[in-house]
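task queued by scheduler; priority normal; single chain, no ligands, no partner chains; default sampling; output format set to structure tokens
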Amino acid sequence: MNTLILTQRKARNIALLLILVALFLMGFLTSCKDDDGPLTPSARELAFEKLSGDWDLGNGAGRIEVDGTDVSANYPGFTLSFTDGGYTTTNGADLFNASGTWQWTDEDAKMLSLDDGKEVTITLLNENRFTFTFTHAGGSSANGINTSNGIEGSYTISVVK
């Protein structure tokens, strides 16, 4: 009789141990599941959503300034368009190439670099306004061709969608 009780206790202990191991394995395997949900977009991704598309001076809503002086009249019909890694401009005169490439230079998406070496600082970027600054040496276009209309100075450009 004692042997039967010991065998039943051993069987019950083994069953209990197997149940605990099974529960542990289930808990371990379900905790490895990727349930973080969708990844949060980076600052660069969020900024590019706003940056992409076509920008212009918007019939006076935007402006081009050099050292605080409005020079928008020197750039009639100015437009600027951004794609992922590329840009195009219209009537950018000596300030921009007609087309080129760009890349972010910081993780916060506050600065970008153009293929002509221009470092651009973003001061405002939302769904309908983009304001940025850069320094221009003047005297030549972005593609290196000498011009007479290059104005040296610190530029602030504000464009709208």
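post-processing summary
- The first strand starts at residue 53 and ends at 56.
- The two ends are 91 Å apart (CA to CA).
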